[in-house]
Amino acid sequence: MRSARALTIFTAVLCVFVLTPPTQAQESPVVGAWITTSWEGLEGDPQPGLLIFTETNYSMMFVPSGSVRERYAGETMTDAEVVAAMSTLVANSGRYTWEGNQITTEAYVALNPNYMADWGENHLVYTFRIEDDLLHLTWPEGFMAEDNPPFTGTFRKVG
Fold first, then answer.
1. How many CA atoms lie within 13 A of 33 on its CB side?
2. pTM more than 0.85
3. Looking at residues 9-28, what average pLDDT do you find?
4. Which fold has domain 26-158?
5. What is the tens place of the pLDDT at every residue in 41-69?
6. Domain segments of the chain: what residues?
7. What is the rounded distance in angstroms from the CA atom of residue 11 to the CA atom of residue 3?
8. pLDDT digits (tens, 9 = 90+) for 87-114
9. How far is CA 118 from the centre of its chain?
10. DSSP β-ladder status, 32-40 and 134-139
């Protein structure tokens, strides 16, 4: 009798675990595609930029304010034109995590080969806030150059 009661209780508890759907983790608030609308802390007009966040991965490409990407004249780019084009573009992709108002990225591939490193050795911590369909993302001090202060990009969600 006692074993039948224990088996009934065990079965009931097992059914609760099996039939109860798992709790879902909260979706990252930055999931989506975002295009540049403005920069604060960088000189010049806003230049094109696109950030894409999935639940676990990101890709970012943008032209920092103050940079101008000149079109080349010939059918192929000269070495000098390649250098000029690459020096006016930030591009990297990898994985990220978020907690509170911070995003930590780890680049897997990047235009800057010194930024491409083993996982965990090339992380960067940003702060962010979202207002309606705008993402305000602040890069840390020293991102563009060692002595550069933090700067903030504002991005509008698209698609």
1. 5
2. no
3. 47
4. Lipocalin (2.40.128)
5. 877 777 889 999 999 999 999 988 777 78
6. 26-158
7. 12
8. 889 999 999 999 999 999 999 999 988 8
9. 18
10. unpaired
